[in-house]
Amino acid sequence: MTELILDVDGLAVVLPESRKGGYTIQSVPLSSDVLMISGRTVRELRGNVWQISYQYGYFDTDTKNKVLAACEKGKSTAIRCGFLPQESDGALSYSSFIVTSVTRPKFMWSRLTKDGEASKEVPLWADFSVELREVRPHD
């Protein structure tokens, strides 16, 4: 099942289904606490924003490059993403997000692949994670 699509209007990178709790989403209140001169605290609430955390094990080189390009774009500008909230029966919701954190995949090992009669070493990349925050409150 698709949980997350990065940059729907651009690169449209469909991320593989995460495993072992690698996808979390929560609705976080967008608020600010103000300490009044009288000593009481007032909370100004603007609404709730989605925060998404996604982690995945192994990517091939092509997928890794697409994912990193979408994440780099999301660091400097809002990207529209499809995501799976807990209330959904499988349908994705869509909103604009910024990338708040990226853990770039690290090189784990290489493997030999056959390219015709020649063998070629191909790198295997692992332990990628990304965190996203919705740009505007959804409620």
Number of helices: 1
Along the chain, the helix and strand elements come as EEEEHEEEE
How large is the share of residues in beta strands?
over 45%
Q: What structural class do the secondary elements suggest?
A: mainly beta
Estimated radius of gyration: 19 Å
Shape: elongated
Distance between the termini: 26 Å
Supply the number of structural domains.
Answer: 1
What does the largest sheet look like? 8 strands, antiparallel
| Proportion of residues in helical segments | 10-25%
Mean pLDDT: 92
Q: What ranges have pLDDT less than 50 throughout 5 or more consecutive residues? A: none
* Annotation, overall tally of beta strands: 8
Question: What can you see in these coordinates?
Answer:
With 139 residues, the chain is mainly β. It has one domain (4-33, 45-134). 12% of the residues lie in helices and 58% in strands. The protein has 1 helix and 8 strands; from the N terminus they run E-E-E-E-H-E-E-E-E. It has one helix at 61-76; strands at 4-6, 13-14, 23-35, 41-59, 79-83, 93-103, 106-115, 118-134. Strands 1, 2, 3, 4, 5, 6, 7 and 8 form an 8-stranded antiparallel beta sheet that branches. Strand 3 and strand 4 form a beta hairpin. It is elongated, with a radius of gyration of 19 Å. The mean pLDDT is 92.
